[in-house]
TrEMBL record, chain A:
Organism lineage string: Bacteria, Pseudomonadati, Pseudomonadota, Alphaproteobacteria, Maricaulales
Cell location: Cell membrane
Main location class: membrane
A biological process from GO: cell division
The protein's name in its UniProt record: Cell division protein
UniProtKB/TrEMBL annotation, chain B:
Protein's UniProt name: Cell division ATP-binding protein FtsE
Role description: Part of the ABC transporter FtsEX involved in cellular division. Important for assembly or stability of the septal ring.
Native source organism of the sequence: Algimonas ampicilliniresistens
Keyword Zinc-finger part of the UniProt annotation: no
Gene3D superfamilies: P-loop containing nucleotide triphosphate hydrolases (3.40.50.300)
Membrane topology of the entry: Peripheral membrane protein
Lineage: Bacteria, Pseudomonadati, Pseudomonadota, Alphaproteobacteria, Maricaulales
Length: 306, 232
């Protein structure tokens, strides 16, 4: 019987927004979201670790490059004072005014040898190398100094820590590269998961796809439905995963590792926050583009098979 | 066969087989002139649904030619076929409603797919739903509808975009005679507005009530008839 009265006509509010053409499928959606959250969490940790290691390397390198040591190979202990004074004079002339110079006493220099010579006292006449530590923001002019020391008849070894900081940079560079590779692998896994979910979605929604095709929907229209769904899921998953990683990183920054790879201030946190937002957007883009590609391919395949 | 612009649909020596099975349709010649109204009858298993699938491009023939709206469909790319499909309204026996969408959304689907702005079609969909007696069920989901309501919803979806070709498979099979008559008048109205209509039905009462050309499908072959008096 046809009802003439419109007793529960849809209100404008109910019609304001169109319903999504693909069903939510909460049971499958939750499992997929969990996988994406875990992957995003790992990716965010890899990113934070790489950035933290890079920052730490910069800090250490900056500390190392601002301090240098000059070892003066004393010929005899009787000449110590004269040779140290000569070296200091050369350094005072060569270095800027704000450079700080600290000459170690014989006892302090001898203490540096303990790891190699042990606690037994050194003979008084054993010439212990003289050590002058220099703290300066300006890099030590090593070659010029060496020439001047040589001209003054001094045998010296200048150590500006460049070898150690070079090794440190190379090591951190490898760690950062490892982090990037890890991010790439997680991105690859996200691509595979998104493609699999799209194929499963297409198979599960075969009837709906058929209706859409019959209504004249193009492959692009149908693929866009999956792209939107995947992008939303990817962004939510990445957002949750990144937030979890940020909380963990915050705790690391407070804990015993304070001053290591963790955040040392608001600037570190803010920059990493921006990086995490970019990661979430990238994650969503990866999910969306792989879903779109998988949908287009699958639709073309289904048509060929039909 | 020379395609004619006067014909909406032309099938010429069309054959169809599923996979490597026998031909379910053989040498089908069918022409639906623009603005015509045609009943397709035949016993169960004769191939009516398969023939309709060919007509609404859900299947492609294994041999023969199909011209739709003056275009040889075998030469068209996928996107061009989709443009043609938007000009066809289809009512299937199993309705194919989307369960998680409301009645309103199901009916509005072809307009949404065609990219029409939402505001532009809300009044049309509402009016049509009132006309087919589903005005009070607009927000209902298909699983909560009766068989007759589902059928009316499917018919409303098929006609909402004012298709040039309307194809229906047993459209009045699940409704009482009063609603069946009303739905048939809707098809007639669409036909008067210029749509070509092809209806597959077993209902000879329906055919008698609405005199029109009738074609009869038997054993995969098509025979021309008139009204309910089918000539093999």
């Amino acid at each position: 019987m046809i009802e003439a009265t419109d007793i529960s006509a849809p209100t404008p509010a109910k019609m304001a927004a169109p319903q999504t053409l693909l069903p939510a499928r909460p049971e499958q959606g939750r499992a997929l979201l969990t996988v994406l959250v875990v992957m995003a969490f790992l990716a965010a940790l890899a990113l934070l670790f790489a950035r933290g290691a890079d920052r730490l390397s910069d800090r250490w390198t900056a500390q190392l490059s601002s301090s240098s040591t000059v070892q003066i190979l004393i010929m005899t202990e009787a000449e110590r004072f004269a040779q140290m004074s000569a070296a200091q004079d050369i350094l005072i002339r060569a270095l800027p005014n704000d450079a700080r110079m600290t000459s170690l006493s014989r006892a302090e220099s001898a203490r540096l040898l303990r790891p190699w010579l042990g606690d037994t006292g050194l003979p008084d006449d054993l010439p212990v190398p003289g050590v002058i530590r220099i703290d300066s923001e300006v890099r030590l002019p090593a070659e010029s100094l060496e020439t001047q020391f040589e001209a003054a008849g001094l045998r010296t070894v200048i150590d500006d820590h460049s070898r150690f900081s070079g090794q440190l940079k190379r090591t951190v560079g490898r760690l950062v590269l490892f982090g990037i590779v890890l991010l790439g692998l997680i991105g690859l896994a996200a691509t595979a998961v998104s493609m699999f979910a799209t194929r499963a979605g297409l198979a599960a929604q075969r009837d709906i796809i058929h209706v859409l095709v019959q209504a004249g929907a193009t492959d692009g229209f149908i693929a866009r439905l999956f792209v939107t769904q995947a992008a939303r899921r990817g962004f939510i998953g990445a957002g949750i995963g990144a937030a979890m990683a940020a909380v963990l990183w915050f705790l690391i920054s407070l804990g015993p590792a304070r001053g290591s790879v963790g955040w040392r201030g608001l600037t570190d946190g803010a920059l990493d926050g921006v990086a995490l937002i970019c990661l979430a957007i990238l994650f969503a883009l990866i999910c969306a583009s792989s879903a779109g590609w998988a949908a287009m391919r699958q639709l073309a395949y289904e048509r060929r098979r039909a | 066969m020379i395609p004619s612009d006067d014909n909406t649909l032309e099938l010429h020596r069309v054959g169809l087989r599923y996979d490597r099975g026998p031909e379910v349709l053989s040498n089908i010649d069918l022409t639906l002139p623009a603005g015509s109204f045609t009943f397709l009858t035949g016993p169960s298993g004769a191939g009516k649904s398969s023939l309709l699938k060919l007509c609404y491009l859900s299947l492609m023939p294994t041999r023969g030619l199909i011209n739709l709206f003056g275009q040889d469909v075998s030469t068209l790319r996928q996107n061009q076929l989709q443009v043609l499909r938007r000009r066809i309204g289809v009512v299937l026996q199993d309705f194919r409603l989307i369960d998680h969408l409301s009645v309103f959304e199901n009916v509005a689907l072809p307009l949404r797919v065609a990219g029409k702005p939402r505001d532009s079609y809300i009044p049309d969909v509402t009016e049509l739903l009132n006309w087919v007696g589903l005005g009070h069920r607009m927000n209902a989901l298909p699983p909560t509808l009766s068989g007759g309501e589902k059928q009316r919803c499917a018919i409303a979806r098929a006609v909402i975009a004012k298709p040039d070709l309307l194809i229906a498979d047993e459209p009045t099979g699940n409704v009482d005679p009063e609603i069946g008559g009303r739905l048939l008048r809707l098809f007639g109205e669409m036909n008067r507005m210029g749509a070509t209509v092809l209806i597959a039905t077993h209902d000879h009462g329906l055919i008698g009530e609405f005199p029109a050309r009738t074609v009869h499908l038997r054993d995969g072959e098509l025979h021309e008839g008139l009204g309910s008096m089918v000539v093999a």
